[in-house]
Here is the input.
Amino acid sequence: MSAQSAKNADLTTVIGLEVHVQLETDTKIFCGCPTEPTDEPNTQTCPVCLGLPGALPVLNEAAVEAAVKVGKAIDADIPEETRFHRKNYFYPDLPKNFQITQYDEPVCADGELEISVGGERRTVGIRRAHLEEDPGSLQHVGGNIDNADYTLVNYNRAGTPLMEIVTKPDFREPEETRAFLEKLEEVLEYLGVFDASRDGSLRIDANLSLVPSDEVDDDGSIGTDVLDSANRTEVKNISSHKGAETALQYEEGRQKDLMRRGKAVEQETRHFNETHGSTVSMRSKEEEKDYRYFEEADLPPLQVSHWKDEISIPELPDARRERFQDEYGLSDEAASKLTSTKQVADFYEDVASEYDADLAATWVADELLGELNYRDMAVTDVEGRLDEVKRLVELVAADDITAKNAKEVVLRGMLDDGDAPDDIVEREDLGKTDADAVAAAVAEAIEENPDAVADYEDGDDGAINFLVGQVMGKTGGSADPGTVNQKLRAALDE
Amino acid sequence: MSDDAATAEDVRHVADLARVDLDDDEVDDFAEQFADILEYFDALDDVPTVDTDADLVNVMRPDEEHDCLDREDALGNAEGTEDGYFKGPNVS
Here is the structure.
């Protein structure tokens, strides 16, 4: 039974991703023009990236190094020899009429990436990862892509190094793709080859098809013949993790609906409309053979398999997470949060090296990340102020201010108003009341409330809370309730 | 003539991809020319294949910036420009 006629059978969703990531190099992949974004169009071009006659591409070593790092991180093979091909098509985003890319001999093959979905760890196979150049950018003026008056072209981006990472069809739920993309970005950022905050640095094409569930093997694998007989759609124009999940959920629903009504799913390319969260059919005229792939004779082959041994990569998130659990005694959840980006992990280790590891974990993973998240901010937004956060932890560690005030007044004030922690402490008079004042308030409270004291002495433990409240009132809330409680008991139990 | 000589349909398909409008006469002309060109390549069938190692491998450059073209020069050959952009007809 083919997937197309499976309207009554249970269906399993099969998804594969092609992820384009921009590699962080100073210059373009085949010429020395800078990759740094600029608002001035066509100021970062040269004969190579403009495709002028006679210009010759020369490969950027840093792009190859980045590719080898990615290969190591995803445990891929770096073949003895790899080479570039020309992919020919007619569209003005590439002035040469072809894109230099890799075809049947990519720089990385057969890798994998471990992800965590709903608390379960899963391995996603990576079929290949290859280097290619980014096209330029087009603006359709006076309308949309179909009815614009004319087109403006900017080649500043043309030639920016990209890596295309192609997964095996290993995803079974749209949610899993989000987990994968988050993990992939995390790894790439750890490697220092990718900057997620850069506009357009991540672009995704996703393939989705439905196969009858009884064709899925017990180990979750699906035969090639089954996959080939199912019509799949390729969704283009996805630019975020959330977008991938939304586009695939829509596509899954659309295909199931068609099948339920006994209609066939057409094998086609679809365009994701982020605003509407839907996909629409996109007329794709080129077939594989129309690209007339052939070897790029201007670029000699690469033999860089030995670079895998020569280039080192930093400790990756999974390894670091495990080390944090062992070394700092953190829970899996806390360790995962703290290793989510390299910057957070580095900051945590910095704080934990000077203060208690648990206190550091609470302050970095819960308080700081929590407050940032609430404000839709990331650690990168407070990059220059991490010293201030560290100072705040110091104030808490030294017991100079209460944890409650530190979080609710100081941290929030720092993030909302941009003030320094010590200024807030002074302005709000948050310095903990000194021991003498607390002792005096305790004595007064006992003196003024004989009934409560009597209740406590008769075994009514709740009466202590009333007395704590009295002391807190006398000290203007700056005393630590735990300390007050202890002091009261000590005085009463004498 | 080779077995897979270009047909009028091939020419229309390629012209469509290249966004070139051809009338029927032009299609026939190009079909003939395509066929001729493909025939030249038949000569390659007679050339023995040899397996040689590439003379050069790993030709790379350091990740260093060079000077870019002045925008005026970059746009110099363009028929249409606007505000520093290359300007052309709408392409879908």
